User: What shape does this take?
Amino acid sequence: MSVPPDVAMVSLLGAQDQWLRQLEGSLDADLMARGNEVTARGSTTAVAGAIRVIEELAALVSRGHVLDQHTVAQTVRIVRGGTDEAASDVLGEPLLAHRGRTIRPKTLNQKRYLDAIRSNTVTFGIGPAGTGKTYLAMAMAVQALRAKQVNRLILARPAVEAGERLGYLPGTLSEKIDPYLRPLWDALRDMMEVEELVRHMDQGTIEVAPLAYMRGRTLNDAFIVLDEAQNTTPEQMKMFLTRIGFGSLAVVTGDVSQVDLPRGAHSGLRVVRGILDGIEGVAFMTLDSEDVIRHHIVQRIVEAYSRHDERADAEA
Assistant: This one.
């Protein structure tokens, strides 16, 4: 196949052809590049797959995307999955840019998660650590605020130890709950300048607060994110969902394998699917170990724990 002239071959193939070699290790085809031509040898199916992968990578490069090991691997995965979505559309969609860094979906499930948020009033993002469920939801929230699609952002987390343990910590209530909200602050600082964040805080257009602070309120024209929702009780989950007002969107994220509630307490995130599944305007999106974007060891750890939990459930 011929690579379009606007695509730099070194960007497509990588330094010392490292992406080409990675493709050969993933695909059942021998690849060779000469000039702007890439030749594939193998079975008909393997050659067709290899050509499509290279075409998708070339499309990403032409859009200014810098290829890396993860992008190449995900492109192969998407093409092999036989889905209708083009890998270049899935991985090339810019969501938010800050300081020369672009936040975008990195897997097919992440792209579908973002599409679900755009299409529904309430979206549940359920999956293990590192799948981007909270980070992407917050990027969507910041994007919506800047586009004036909403008037404010409400970011909440349950403080699961707001009882006796938290009471023994020194400081004011605000100082005690700050460690629970710190991950949300850190994500916001990744997405906007400190001056912009402080301005929104002073104006009340961005609020980061414990879930308990939502009680008794109606949240209109807001993008609301509830993080660590596996640590809500069914009553707290109902309370949160009934705060949603006109013109608002809500995203609920959590990992049902990491519930920190007291023994015997039910997780609202585990219960809610059986109640709301199939309701119009509500979507449940599940991300798994293949969507983990952190260090590769995290993916292996998640998979190992999943196998352990499956064995434990079978024995029980």
About this structure: The chain has 13 helices and ten strands. Residues 138 and 152 are 12 Å apart (CA to CA). The radius of gyration is 22 Å.
